[in-house]
């Protein structure tokens, strides 16, 4: 297997940089493929923000690359304005404490239609 980690990192950087809110997840927002991804989508829906999702099951390079990119071993992973926030457990804790909504508001993230 050739080493595409540089390319993959660039692709991930581009995705993270081009979107205010990005969720790297298993499946899609309509059809999450794991409970953690489902929970992450639900939290973002409750926060009423627009977000881009990347289905890591469709792209093995990104699936592995995102773990190295964030130095975080699990998926889903949430990025807000280029900053790694965390996985579904951290999202849940922040959401319940009101911190996630506050961060999204402070960073002036686009609201969902």
From TrEMBL:
PROSITE patterns: GLUTAREDOXIN_2 (PS51354). Keywords: 2Fe-2S, Iron, Iron-sulfur, Metal-binding, Redox-active center. The keyword Nucleus does not apply. Pfam families: Glutaredoxin. One of its GO terms (molecular function) is disulfide oxidoreductase activity. It comes from the Bacteria. The keyword Iron-sulfur applies. Belongs to the glutaredoxin family. Monothiol subfamily. This is Glutaredoxin.
